[in-house]
Design brief:
Blueprint lengths: L1 H8 L10 H5 L6 H26 L4 E6 L5 H11 L8 E7 L2 H10 L6 E5 L13 E4 L9 H18 L2 E10 L13 E5 L11 E7 L1 H14 L3 E10 L6 H4 L9 H8 L22 H24 L20 H10 L6 H21 L8 E9 L3
Helix pairs in contact: 3-4, 6-7, 10-12, 11-12
The structure holds S-adenosylmethionine (SAM).
């Protein structure tokens, strides 16, 4: 009786019925998506699979993708395997999603591959019991759930790992609590969110979403694994899209920031001059845990330093002091590289075709090497290595 009641109380609306157009739209694949976000996710998954291989060396890879949408998680894992030396390992993929529209489109898209299957399923309830090496998620599906529901979902996964005695990877993809996109919401961990950035979708309704500080997500994972008596070998966290989440362009929850995603896209656009001043970044002053404040203070200095160097190379003064702070090795030497590139470039559009994309690459490198895995980006990715044999 109680479970029937709980079931009836849970929201079961297909929010993604129309959003499926966004996932099929070519407009979704802007430069930030293809040059910043996808390579970052690929690196995270590649490293995770590599570590899984080092730790446990499973014979095949069985992937269960939670909130799979139209199956992009399959592409991610397949690309990771293709660039690793054990690419011949056989991959079996099962996508779970509670949107019947997503599942319908996904089945049609992958109908010719017998190793790819989809099931209409709600990840808040029991999951299929198949032994699985990678419990994947991407595109923040767990953020749709309340904290309690996510904890239950993790409990189901840990229980399955223990029952099947597998050594598995669990990837937990959620919205970062302290993203610059929603400074106005930093004091809340679950709030009414609208995906107003969706391409080729006319109207989007609000839906409640949970955002996470890594410390809280880690406590939840530790607590759940203890409850299920399941041993965690290692946990890592990554922040994806610190400066370029899609809501930096809508500015719906922070109108004080420049539309960074658009500006970074503009840096890659041939023949279009970008105003460097718009790229400057001021660390947010809202209340946040001290590691978050310290990160943004240091990150903003280095980000601005790179922008100032590019402007100075063009003979522009941005009227903010160049403190000439020592840059991390991964992003040192921008001016030197620009000089070298200029020597071998004979065309007219050096600034728009060479300098601006080079600056974008340095900013991307800064974001991906300095991200602290705290919950300061659009997405917080938790990667958990679990040993169900012990
Ligand atoms: C932003 S989309 C991401 C889709 C896909 N993983 C990707 O990265 O392209 C989030 C997905 O989570 C699914 N979802 C939300 N709540 C769910 C639930 N309780 N059970 C299963 N899927 C859910 C939605 O239907 C949607 O397809």
């Amino acid at each position: 009786m109680t479970s029937t009641l709980n079931f009836l109380q849970l929201e079961n609306k297909d929010h993604y019925k129309t959003a499926v157009n966004h996932y099929l739209s070519p407009h979704r694949k802007d430069s930030v998506k293809t040059k910043w976000e996808n390579p970052f996710s690929l690196t995270v998954i590649k490293n995770a699979i590599n570590k899984l291989e080092e730790k446990y060396s499973p014979k095949s890879l069985r992937v269960m993708d939670f909130g799979c949408g139209i199956g992009e998680g399959f592409v991610l894992v397949q690309n990771a395997l293709n660039s690793l030396e054990f690419q011949t390992k056989e991959l079996f993929y099962l996508g779970l999603d509670n949107s019947s529209e997503m599942v319908k489109v996904a089945r049609q898209k992958w109908k010719d591959n017998k190793n790819i299957n989809f099931q209409e399923a709600d990840i808040r309830f029991e999951i299929p019991g198949n032994p699985t090496e990678i419990y994947l998620s991407c595109g923040v599906p767990y953020s749709h759930l309340t904290k309690e529901e996510t904890q239950d979902a993790l409990g189901h996964i840990f229980r399955a790992i223990k029952k099947n005695k597998t050594q598995s990877l669990v990837v937990i993809d959620v919205l970062g609590r302290y993203s610059i996109e929603w400074v106005s919401q930093w004091e809340h961990s679950r709030w009414s969110y609208r995906m107003s950035f969706l391409a080729d979708v006319q109207e989007q309704e609000d839906m409640m979403m949970s955002c996470y500080y890594a410390h809280d997500l880690k406590s939840m994972i530790d607590r759940t694994s203890k409850q299920e008596n399941c041993q965690i070998q290692d946990i890592e966290f990554f922040d994806r899209s610190v400066m370029v989440g899609r809501h930096t362009s809508t500015r719906e929850y922070n109108s004080a920031i420049p539309p960074y995603r658009e500006i970074i896209n503009s840096l890659y656009e041939s023949g279009r001059t970008t105003d460097f001043r718009e790229l400057l970044f001021q660390s947010p002053s809202a209340q946040a845990p001290s590691p978050v404040k310290e990160f943004f203070d240091r990150f903003s200095h280095i980000w601005n330093q790179l922008v100032i160097e590019a402007a100075e190379f063009c003979g522009e003064n941005l009227n903010i002091p160049n403190n000439n702070i020592p840059l991390p090795e991964s992003v040192a030497g921008l001016k030197h590289q620009l000089s070298t590139l200029q020597e071998s470039y004979c065309e007219q559009n050096f600034r728009t075709d060479i300098l601006e994309p080079t600056l974008a690459e340095y900013l991307h490198r800064l974001e991906s090497t300095m991200q602290p895995g705290l919950g300061v980006g659009h997405t917080l990715i938790g990667v958990v290595y679990v040993d169900g044999t012990k």
